[in-house]
Design brief:
two-stranded antiparallel ribbon; 6 helices; elongated; transducer; mainly alpha; membrane; cell membrane; GPR158/179; 5% strand; transmembrane helix
């Protein structure tokens, strides 16, 4: 159910030459990967909370099918948002380009050259705020279910993955907002790569390694 692969493709797109098509595809890869990965984590925390609160009363079991339906609804909402984002970007093309044009420092006539990054847009702030709100909601669920016991400490690892994403991404967004004019495209690309490693790679490890270790331990005990 967890799939940060699409987010990794967002970073991989930066290895391609910047173009209008690439700049239109980047938000789709990033946001679809984000909602599939962290939306699934938030829903898992929601299930832990529901099962914990209904343990002593009438037990309410949230099935995997229910979680899949909720996740599909979240994906549809993101698809609608991305469609509006793309439509707005296409309108923006009538007046400017999506590729980030940088002033050539050694040029006397202020000649501009195309960088390998897409132009920062104000709509990006709305997208980033939405990401942080989703992560914040996940952290709220984590606090509410802090006393829940889960197999192989699944809840703790889910919370750790959301907390790391929240701290790393919020720090990245704040630094980029304040120091965007001082950053060059190469610096931003390096920052994106580092953020990807600190969030996506760590999330994969936190989600799958404990399960693999638990299964390996069970096999050794059974043997």
């Amino acid at each position: 159910m967890l799939s940060p692969t699409v987010i990794c493709r967002h970073v991989a797109l930066h290895f391609l030459q910047a173009s209008t098509v690439r700049c239109l595809l980047e938000p789709w890869c990033r946001e679809l990967g984000f909602i599939i990965c962290y939306g699934a984590i938030v829903l898992k925390l929601y299930r832990h909370l529901v099962e914990f609160r209904t343990r002593k009363a009438h037990r309410w079991v949230v099935r995997d099918l229910d979680l899949l339906r909720y996740l599909c609804a979240m994906i549809v909402a993101v698809l609608c948002y991305l469609a509006a984002f793309t439509a707005t970007s296409l309108d923006f093309l009538q007046y400017s380009e999506l590729v980030w044009q940088m002033d050539q420092p050694q040029s006397m006539d202020a000649e501009q050259v195309a960088s390998n990054m897409c132009r920062p847009l104000r709509w990006d702030y709305v997208t980033e705020a939405g990401e942080l709100l989703i992560l914040g909601f996940g952290l709220q669920l984590a606090i509410a279910s802090r006393n829940a016991n889960t197999q192989f400490r699944e809840r703790q690892f889910l919370v750790a993955s959301i907390l790391i994403e929240f701290l790393v991404s919020s720090t990245f967004y704040i630094l980029r907002f304040w120091y965007l004019e001082e950053f060059n495209p190469s610096t931003l690309f390096l920052a994106l790569f580092v953020r990807s490693q600190l969030t996506n790679t760590v999330t994969l490890g936190l989600i799958f390694l404990p399960k693999l270790w638990y299964q390996h331990k069970q096999v050794n005990v059974g043997g």
